[in-house]
Amino acid sequence: MAKTGIFLAIVSVLLFSAVHAASTAYKWVDASGKTIYSQTPPPVGVPYQIVEQPDAHSSSLTNNSDSSLKDQVAKADEARAQKKEEQQRLAESDQIKKENCAQANTNLTALTSRGQVTIKEGDLYRKLTEEERQAKIAEAKSQISEFCN
């Protein structure tokens, strides 16, 4: 009889441990920005959080748990939206840099392929002096190094 009681106690502890272990989840963000929830830890080197899940057999879910989960989902959605906006800003910035690079290359070609350069100021045209042309060439080269890298 005593052996049966000890056996039942050990089985109970093992079952409780298994249920408790199954209630642990890991949360991390993968390389594409997607939030992952899993019962197995992420790959080595990936920062993560341990998220305690309520016991599946427990009826003690409260509105606080539901609202906490909703808050986490809302925060994740907000973070995803902010990341998307940042990616759009970077894409727009890259496009502007690309356009500026092309314009700087066009300017440098125009300044170096001809002997004398004429520019339009308002409604009038005038020829650049050699010093002005050299200054504009230096400016175009500076813009190329800034926008074309």
What's the helical proportion of residues? 55-70%
What Rg is obtained from the alpha carbons, in whole angstroms?
33 Å
Strand order of the largest sheet: 2-1-3
Low-confidence stretches: none
What's the β-strand tally?
Answer: 5
State which percent range the strand residues make up.
5-15%
Tally of DSSP helical segments: 3
Mean pLDDT: 81
The helix-and-strand class reads: alpha+beta
How many domains? The number is 2
Sheet of most strands: 3 strands, antiparallel
- End-to-end gap: 81 Å
Can you tell me the overall shape?
A: rod-shaped
Order of helices and strands: HEEEHEEH
Relevant terms:
15% strand; two-stranded antiparallel sheet; single chain; 3 helices; rod-shaped; 3-stranded antiparallel β-sheet; alpha+beta; 149 residues; 5 strands
Can you describe what's shown?
- 60% of the residues lie in helices and 15% in strands.
- It is rod-shaped and about 110 Å long.
- β1 and β2 (35-38) form a beta hairpin.
- Strands 2-1-3 form a three-stranded antiparallel β-sheet.
- The protein has helices at residues 2-22, 63-113, 130-147, and strands at residues 24-29, 35-38, 49-52, 118-121, 124-127.
- By secondary structure, the chain is an alpha+beta fold.
- The protein has three helices and five strands, in the order αβββαββα.
- The protein has two domains: 1-55, no CATH class; 76-149.
Concise summary:
Helices cover 60% and strands 15% of the residues. It is of the alpha+beta class and 149 residues long. Strand 1 and strand 2 form a beta hairpin.
